[in-house]
Amino acid sequence: MRSKTVIFLVGPTASGKSELAVALAKKIGGEIISADSMLVYKGMDIGTAKPSRQERLGVPHHGIDLIPQSKNYSVFSYRRYALKTIKGVLKRGKTPIIAGGTGFYVRALLEGLSPHPGANPAIRRKLDAEAQRKGLAALYSRLSRVDPVRAKEIGPHNQRRIVRALEIHEVSGKKASSASRKSQGLRALGYEPVVIGIHRDRQALYERINKRVERMFRNGLVPEVKRLMRRKFSLTALQGVGYKEVVECLKKGTDADFKKYRGLPPAVLKEAVAKIQQTTRRFAKRQWTWFKRETGIRWVWWPEGARVADIARFIQRMIGGTK
Q1: 289 lies in a domain?
Q2: Residues 156 and 191 grouped into a single domain
Q3: How remote is the C-alpha of 212 from its chain's centroid?
Q4: Contact 234/72 with Cβ under 8 angstroms?
Q5: Which of 58, 192, 220, 322 is deepest in the core (most CB within 10 A)?
Q6: 180: exposed, middle or buried (C-beta count within 10 Å: 0-12, 13-18, 19+)?
Q7: What pTM was computed for the model?
Q8: Element containing residue 207 per DSSP (H, E)
Q9: Residue 260 pLDDT greater than 70, yes or no
Q10: How many angstroms separate the CA atoms of 117 and 154, rounded?
């Protein structure tokens, strides 16, 4: 393994990336950096299928449990964190293994980022609603505080551009008026990225998703969400599949319901499980579509029944890695 090699393991949710990353790390002497936008949140464990300390098998994991769920987290923050961590892993003589299914995080490392983020529908809806509730003048006043240059350029009457400028600031922490070039990707920064895509039978993947959602509920997803609801969810945290659905169900019920059934009433529980299974399957399909469109991915077929150790060994031979 060359000294600047950075390995990526990408693919849809429930495809076995976390387990495979651990097995590969043990074979090549690696450390794992999560590329999952939900694993950054403390306390969001069951619904994100966060690998437990036992499942990590002593392999160092990074990018997990960074912030409380009440805080927003951006791709800009992730890229900055991941680049710093990659340097640290390489300095220790280990190989960074970026594992996860958040395509935007992966692309931000491989290709760099434009100076301003793309649209964030959730934040944009929140700002539009605030303009309706408080008036456009309130939003313009806030923009004047955080980015007076851009506020002066826009003026106080263009809601679309005011909302966009505030959206940029909320997502990235940067001013819309700050001019900067696109950041560099890993190869331009002197690294040698190797991107491995995990390809599995789609129907079998969907069945694993269904079983995993059922297991999440058995393991205490509803109490986890109820506990987290004592503090508000940030807009980005609430994008996690499963959390929004359970929050909606809990808001419909009562504390008496929760105590009586140790969670949700049976009919509500059945509906929640089915809805989250469907949403997760659709999410996996979108992930598949995203990564299939990306260039430079070397796809590895993982047949049903094949052991994770065998797939890890195959990838090790493919990339020429030794421990």
Answers
A1: no
A2: no
A3: 18
A4: yes
A5: 220
A6: exposed
A7: 0.82
A8: helix 202-218
A9: no
A10: 19
Question: If pLDDT is split at 50, 70 and 90, which confidence band does 118 have?
Answer: low
CATH number at residue 150: 1.10.20.140
**Residues 51 and 192 reside in one and the same domain:** yes
Of 282, 314, 277, which Cα lies nearest the Cα of 298? Answer: 314
Token code pair at residue 294: 């990306």
The boundaries of the domain holding residue 144 are: 121-172
Average of pLDDT values for 87-109?
A: 96
List the one residue out of 280, 160, 260 whose CA is nearest residue 214: 280
**E strand or H helix at 192, and its extent?**
strand 192-199
What average pLDDT does the segment 218-239 reach? Answer: 90
* 225 in the same domain as 193: no
Question: Could you report the per-residue pLDDT of 59-76, keeping only the tens digit for each?
Answer: 999 999 999 999 988 888
Cα–Cα distance for residue pair 26/289, rounded to 1 Å: 30
| d(C-alpha 143, C-alpha 130), whole Å | 13
Task: For 279-319, give the DSSP string.
Answer: HHHHHHHHHHHHHHHSSSEEEEE--TT--HHHHHHHHHHHH
| Domain CATH number, residue 109 | 3.40.50.300
